[in-house]
Design goal:
The chain is of the alpha+beta class. It is built from three helices and four strands; from the N terminus they run H-E-E-E-E-H-H. Helices cover 28% and strands 35% of the residues. It is globular.
């Protein structure tokens, strides 16, 4: 989403960080819940994305979509895009 929507080039840093320009813009946590007959019942996914945080609000080594694009973004619109892309990707499983 960050690349397609904003032209940003994210990289992944283990175990759960997404970086842009070497700075953390996002964190992702996944937790498996319940097992039945050797199969997972659920995955709980948590995503934290720095959207409109200013440089003064960010911890050292972090960035935000607003900082990288030069303008504030609509959080509801970003959430909608993120959920649509997750739904599309989950449909491929």
């Amino acid at each position: 989403m960050l690349q397609r929507k904003f032209g940003l080039h994210p990289t992944f840093k283990r175990p759960n960080d997404v970086l842009v320009g070497g700075r953390k813009i996002c964190g992702i946590l996944v937790e498996a819940q319940g097992r039945s007959n050797g199969h997972l019942e659920n995955l709980v996914v948590g995503v934290g994305l720095n959207v409109n945080a200013s440089p003064e609000e960010l911890v050292k080594g972090a960035t935000s979509v607003a900082r990288e694009t030069g303008k504030k973004q609509s959080r509801p619109a970003l959430l909608k895009t993120l959920l649509e892309e997750l739904r599309k990707d989950l449909g491929k499983l």
